[in-house]
Amino acid sequence: xxxxxxxxxxxxxxxxxxxxxxxxxxxxxxxxxxxxxxxxxxxxxxxxxxxxxxxxxxxxxxxxxxxxxxxxxxxxxxxxxxxxxxxxxxxxxxxxxxxxxxxxxxxxxxxxxxxxxxxxxxxxxxxxxxxxxxxxxxxxxxxxxxxxxxxxxxxxxxxxxxx
Length: 163
What we know:
Radius of gyration: 18 Å
Largest sheet: none
Strand content: under 5%
Order of helices and strands: HHHHHHHH
Structural class: mainly alpha
Distance between the termini: 24 Å
Number of domains: 1
Number of strands: 0
Shape: globular
Number of helices: 8
């Protein structure tokens, strides 16, 4: 059981997969029995939130540093331009509700939205760290609830069909 907790913790830290992939794995019986819901959510949220401060404070610096490098420069420049352009567009649309927009962006489990992308956007927009972390964490919790409900529905249906 400890291995499964470690597995969902590590899956929660992976960009693009994050908690959205870890919750269904923890609730499934693929590797033994499913994990209890409350400890599963706590582990997944901790795993998903662990990289957030590093992304917020260092991702932009790494991209700026690499923008003039020979092999990675074009890609890093593309990421910087895309991030700044997307951030400005989001800020124009959201206006004063920027933290609510960040919360919803992270909380609705669609491909390309999540704690990693939301935190990177907050960094590009020079948003307040504490408020951004609160919005991202609330979004992660919302995404976890949505994925949990979806997992029960999907895996419950598959279990009924297979039995």
